[in-house]
Inverse folding.
C-alpha cells in the first residue's frame, strides 16, 4: 500500500509577494496602454512555422525568408522600383509590363509559373531580369511551397 | 538427515516483472515510456538542427507503392513539428502523467483509482503518438499547426488516453473533499486544460473554420498547452519534490495560492497573445501579450517559494541528485519566463518573426526547465517505484551536466541566431550570407541537442542499472521534521 505522506505548508503570505504582483500588474497595464491601436501582422511565428507546411502565412513567411525574396523586394516586399517590383496589390494581375502577357494567358496561376521559372515561356534570362528560377537549383522550391507563397502574396494589399 | 535439493527439485524462483505490479505500476510505466520518448525527441532535435545546417542533405522524399501510393516526405516541414511534438507530448506529458500517478496517492492517502485504467490511458496515448508521428512523414496525411498536426482519428485515440488519465486522477482526488496540496491543483487544472485544448485543436479536422481561423485556433491551443499543461505540470512536480527531499514544509501556503491563481488567469491570457493576425483586433492581441508579461509574476512567485523552502538545506545542492536537478530546473524556468516576457514585446516580435528565436526559447524552457524538473522527479521516484537503492554515480552527474550544458548551448545559440537572422533579414541579407552567418549558431545548437540526447541515454542506462543491480530496499516516507511541522501548524 502506498503510504499517505502529506507535505506540510507554512501559513501566511509575505508582503513582498504582494508588492511584486502589484508592480508587474502596473508594467502589464502600461504595456497594454501603449499598445491599444495598430494592425497585427499576418499570423506568423510559432515553433512549427516551417517552409513548405502548406497554406498559411506563417509557412509562407518562413519560405520567403529562407528563399531570400526580401533581399531584392525589400523587408516589407514593397519593392525597390524600377528594378525590383512591389509585391503588394497583385490581386488584379501583374503590374509590370514584361509579365502582362503571361497574366492574360494564365490569369489563375501566372505567379506560380513566374516564380518557378521553369516553363519555357518564362525561362528567358532577358525576360527574367535577374529573377531567380526558384523551381530549380539551388532553391528547389516545390510547387506546393510556391503555391503557399502565392497565396500569401495575394493577401498583400 | 536433510538432502540438498538438486536444481530441478527446487521450487521455481519468483520472477521479477520489469515493473512491479501495484501500487506504482502505471507511474513506472509512464516514466519508462517517457524516457524512450526523450531519446526520440533529442534525436529529432539533432535532425532539426542538422536540417538547418545542411538543408539539401537532409531532404528525403520517396514513394511507397502501397494502395493508391504513399509519398513519404522528410524535410524541415516534418522534422520541426516532430521534434516539438515528441518533446511536449512524448517526453514531458508521459513524465507528467507518471508524476500524477506517483504523487496523487501519496498526497491524498487514497490508492490510485485504477492502475489498470491508467495503463489503458498510457497505451492509448502512446499508440496515438506513434501513429501520429508515422503519419507526419506521409505527405498529405497530417494537418497543420503547431502541436496540432495529428489527423483526426489519431487525435481521437489520444483524446481517449487523456480522458482515461483525467478520469483516474479525478476519481482519486475528489473523494478527499478538501483543498488538496498545491501540486495536485496544478496537475488538475493542467490535465483539464490539456484535454480541452487538445479537443479544440481537433475542430478544424471536423469543420474547417477557414485557413486563417484554423491557424489562429492552432496557435492559441499550442500556446495554451505550453502555459497551462507544460508549465503547470512542471511547477506541480517541483512543488512536490523540493519539500519532500529537503524535508522542510513549503515556505508559504499563501504565496503558493497567489502564484497558482495568477498562473490560472495569465496562462489563459497569454494564449490569447498568440492570436496575431489582422483579423484579430489589435487590442485583444495586446491584452494577450500583456498576459505573457504578467505570467512572469506567478512564475517568479512560485520559484521564489520553492527556493525559500530550501532554507537551511542548501548543502543538498552540493550532492548529486534530485535537488541539483530541481534547482537547475528552477534557474532555467526563471530565465525562460524572462525571455518569454521580452519576446512578447511588439518590437521584439517584429525582429524575431520567422527566425529561430521562438524555437530557442522553447528549447530553453522545455529541455532546460521542464526536463530538469522531471529529471528531479525521476531521480526521486524511480528508486521508490522499483524499490531499489538510488545511486549517486557518474551517470547522475552526466545527466545533470549534459542537460544543463545541452539546453543552455542549444537554447542560447538558437536565440542569438534568431536575433542575428532577424537583423540580417531586416537589412535584406541574401540567403548565402544568412546561411554563412548562422552556421556557427546552428552548429552550436546541434551540439547542444546532442548533449541532451546523451543525458537522456544516461537516464535510461541509470534506470536499467537501478533495476538490475540496485540493492532491494523498502522506502519509508520521510517524516517532516518535528520543528518544521510545528512551524507549519501541524
Amino acid at each position: 500500500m502506498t503510504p499517505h505522506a502529506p507535505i506540510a505548508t507554512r501559513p501566511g503570505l509575505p508582503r513582498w509577494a504582494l508588492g511584486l504582483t502589484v508592480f508587474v500588474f502596473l508594467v502589464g497595464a502600461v504595456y497594454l496602454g501603449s499598445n491599444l491601436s495598430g494592425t497585427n501582422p499576418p499570423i506568423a511565428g510559432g515553433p512549427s512555422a516551417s517552409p513548405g507546411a502548406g497554406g498559411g502565412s506563417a509557412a509562407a513567411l518562413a519560405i520567403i525568408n529562407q528563399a531570400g525574396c526580401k533581399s531584392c523586394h525589400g523587408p516589407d516586399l514593397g519593392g525597390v522600383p524600377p528594378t525590383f517590383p512591389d509585391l503588394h496589390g497583385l490581386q488584379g494581375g501583374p503590374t509590370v509590363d514584361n509579365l502582362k502577357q503571361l497574366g492574360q494567358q494564365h490569369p489563375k496561376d501566372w505567379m506560380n509559373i513566374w516564380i518557378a521559372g521553369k516553363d519555357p515561356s518564362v525561362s528567358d534570362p532577358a525576360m527574367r531580369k535577374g529573377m531567380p528560377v526558384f523551381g530549380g537549383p539551388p532553391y528547389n522550391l516545390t510547387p506546393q511551397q510556391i503555391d503557399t507563397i502565392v497565396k500569401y502574396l495575394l493577401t498583400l494589399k | 538427515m536433510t538432502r540438498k535439493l538438486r536444481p530441478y527439485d527446487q521450487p521455481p524462483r519468483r520472477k521479477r516483472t520489469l515493473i512491479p505490479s501495484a501500487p506504482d505500476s502505471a507511474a513506472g510505466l509512464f516514466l519508462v515510456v517517457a524516457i524512450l520518448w526523450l531519446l526520440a525527441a533529442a534525436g529529432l532535435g539533432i535532425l532539426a538542427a542538422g536540417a538547418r545546417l545542411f538543408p539539401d542533405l537532409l531532404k528525403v522524399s520517396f514513394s511507397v507503392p502501397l494502395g493508391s501510393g504513399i509519398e513519404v516526405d522528410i524535410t524541415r516541414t516534418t522534422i520541426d513539428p516532430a521534434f516539438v511534438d515528441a518533446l511536449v507530448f512524448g517526453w514531458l506529458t508521459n513524465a507528467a502523467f507518471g508524476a500524477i500517478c506517483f504523487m496523487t496517492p501519496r498526497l491524498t492517502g487514497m490508492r490510485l483509482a485504477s492502475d489498470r485504467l491508467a495503463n489503458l490511458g498510457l497505451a492509448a496515448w502512446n499508440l496515438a503518438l506513434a501513429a501520429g508521428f508515422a503519419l507526419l512523414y506521409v505527405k498529405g496525411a497530417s494537418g497543420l499547426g503547431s502541436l496540432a498536426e495529428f489527423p483526426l482519428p489519431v487525435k481521437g485515440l489520444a483524446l481517449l488516453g487523456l480522458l482515461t488519465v483525467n478520469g483516474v486522477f479525478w476519481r482519486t482526488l475528489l473523494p478527499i473533499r478538501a483543498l488538496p496540496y498545491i501540486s495536485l491543483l496544478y496537475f488538475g487544472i493542467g490535465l483539464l486544460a490539456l484535454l480541452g485544448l487538445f479537443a479544440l485543436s481537433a475542430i478544424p479536422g471536423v469543420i474547417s473554420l477557414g485557413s486563417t481561423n484554423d491557424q489562429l485556433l492552432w496557435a492559441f491551443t499550442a500556446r495554451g498547452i505550453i502555459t497551462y499543461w507544460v508549465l503547470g505540470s512542471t511547477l506541480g512536480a517541483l512543488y512536490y519534490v523540493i519539500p519532500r527531499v529537503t524535508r522542510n514544509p513549503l515556505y508559504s501556503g499563501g504565496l503558493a495560492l497567489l502564484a497558482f491563481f495568477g498562473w490560472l488567469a495569465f496562462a489563459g491570457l497569454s494564449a490569447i497573445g498568440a492570436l496575431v493576425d489582422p483579423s484579430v483586433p489589435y487590442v485583444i492581441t495586446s491584452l494577450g501579450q500583456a498576459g505573457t508579461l504578467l505570467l512572469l509574476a506567478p512564475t517568479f512567485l512560485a520559484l521564489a517559494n520553492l527556493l525559500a523552502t530550501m532554507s537551511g538545506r542548501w548543502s543538498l545542492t552540493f550532492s548529486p541528485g534530485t535537488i541539483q536537478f530541481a534547482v537547475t530546473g528552477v534557474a532555467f524556468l526563471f530565465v525562460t519566463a524572462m525571455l518569454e516576457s521580452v519576446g512578447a514585446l511588439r518590437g521584439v516580435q517584429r525582429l524575431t518573426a520567422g527566425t529561430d528565436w521562438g524555437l530557442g526559447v522553447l528549447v530553453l524552457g522545455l529541455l532546460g526547465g521542464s526536463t530538469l524538473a522531471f529529471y528531479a522527479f525521476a531521480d526521486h521516484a524511480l528508486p521508490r517505484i522499483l524499490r531499489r537503492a538510488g545511486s549517486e554515480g557518474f551517470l547522475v552527474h552526466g545527466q545533470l551536466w549534459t542537460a544543463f550544458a545541452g539546453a543552455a548551448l542549444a537554447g542560447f545559440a538558437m536565440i542569438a541566431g534568431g536575433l542575428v537572422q532577424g537583423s540580417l533579414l531586416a537589412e535584406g541579407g541574401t540567403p548565402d550570407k544568412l546561411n554563412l552567418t548562422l552556421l556557427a549558431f546552428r552548429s552550436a545548437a546541434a551540439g547542444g541537442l546532442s548533449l541532451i540526447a546523451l543525458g537522456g541515454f544516461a537516464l535510461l542506462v541509470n534506470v536499467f542499472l537501478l533495476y538490475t543491480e540496485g540493492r532491494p530496499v523498502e522506502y519509508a516516507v520521510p517524516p517532516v521534521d518535528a520543528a518544521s511541522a510545528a512551524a507549519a501548524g501541524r
User: Anything to note?
Assistant: Chain A touches chain B through 63 residues (CB under 8 Å). Residues 57-153 of chain A form one domain. The longest helix of chain A spans residues 15-33.
